[in-house]
Amino acid sequence: MKTLFWPCILFLFLNVVVAHAEVDPHSYAEPSRVSMTALDLDIEVDFPTKKLLATADLSLAWHDADARSLVLDTRDLDIESVKAVDAQGREQDADFSLDPRDPIFGSALRIALKDQVPNVRIRYRTSPEASGLQWMSPQQTASKKQPFMFSQSQAIHARSWIPLQDTPSVRFTYTAHVKAPKPLRVVMSADNDVKHRLDGDYRFVMKQPIPSYLLAIAVGELDVRVTGPRTAVFAEPSVIAAAAKELEDTEKMIEATEKLYGPYRWERYDILILPASFPFGGMENPRLTFATPTILAGDKSLVGLIAHELAHSWSGNLVTNASAEHMWMNEGFTTYVENRIVEELYGKEVATMQLVVDDQELLVEMQGMTPEQQLLVTDLDGIDPDEGLSGVPYDKGRWFLRFLESRYGRDVFDPFLRAYFDHFAFQSITSTEFLEFYSENLEKKHLGKVSSAEIDAWLHLPGIPSNAPVAHSARFDAVDKAAADFIAGNLAAKDIQAKDWVTLEWLRFINALPETPEIAQIKALDDAWNLSNSGNGEIAFRWYVATVRAGYTDARPQIAAFIERIGRRKLVVPIYEELARTPDGKAFAIEVYARAKPGYHPMTQGSVEKVLGL
Ligand code: BES
Ligand code: ZN
Question: Would you identify the CATH topology of the domain 319-460?
Answer without folding.
Answer: Neutral Protease; domain 2 (1.10.390)
